[in-house]
Design brief:
Blueprint: E1 5-8, E2 15-18, H1 27-40, E3 42-45, H2 52-62, E4 65-66, E5 72-74, E6 77-85, E7 110-117, E8 125-129, H3 130-135, H4 139-146, E9 149-152, E10 175-178, E11 180-182, E12 189-191, E13 198-201, H5 206-220, E14 226-229, E15 236-240, E16 244-248, E17 257-264, E18 270-271
Parallel strand pairs: 2-3
Antiparallel strand pairs: 1-2, 3-15, 4-17, 5-6, 6-17, 7-15, 7-17, 8-14, 8-16, 9-10, 9-13, 11-12, 11-18
Length: 272
Amino acid sequence: MDTWSIKKLAGHCGARLEGVSLANASTSQLQEMRSALFEHGVIVMPQQHLSPDQHIKLAEFFGEIVVNRFFTPVASHPIIAEVRTSPNQAEVIGGTWHTDHSYDAAPAMCSILSAKELPPFGGDTHFASMAASYRAMSPGLQNILKGLRAWHSDSSFATTKQGINPKQGAFRDPVIHPVIIKHPNTGTPCVFVNGDFTINFENWSIEESAPMLSYLYALITKPIFTARVVWEPGMVAIWDNRLVQHYATADYSGYTRLMHRITVAGVPLEGA
């Protein structure tokens, strides 16, 4: 039976998996893939060319599908979100460092992106390990952060220029999460704040929180903790939103880029 060939993309996150067709993968092959996801934070699988139905089946292996309330759905399969960049867009969806659905009480477990139409150059996605950045901290800072919680909000979608026009009813009240979380499956401690959706620490003002949050955002996204995914036709990428942040590069102005995305439900997060 075929097994995955697994090669790391970088020192602290990311792996490339080849040798198995996701559309025909056995349960044991899918379990091996999921283990690689929990180990590396983000995994990419080239030459998959999933149909929408195959994409949905893959997502259901991980859990319940969450329909994103801010993205345009794929017309034929509305539980799939369409992540489209038109040639005249100056900014792109996801063009800042963020963690999907951290504004939800139970943040997304993983996101699954399937490449449909790619520009002739650019459009890479960067990932940053929130686990590696935690390990790099001093014990003193780790202990301080373990005692904190932070508020997360979807309010940044109200002013975005990234091709999203959210309905007012899509917005929800802010939610609170530990700043240092324990990964629900592995117990790995991770720094769970991001520049798009984190507002301030609990019982701290926004002004008081800003210096520490800025430091954490810069630490998490240091190049040493990152991996860069260069998209290929038909490639599928899966990332764990509790382990990594991501950033979509807007360097292909004048060209179309179309991806299909499914987000899988997570659980409320506990502190490390």
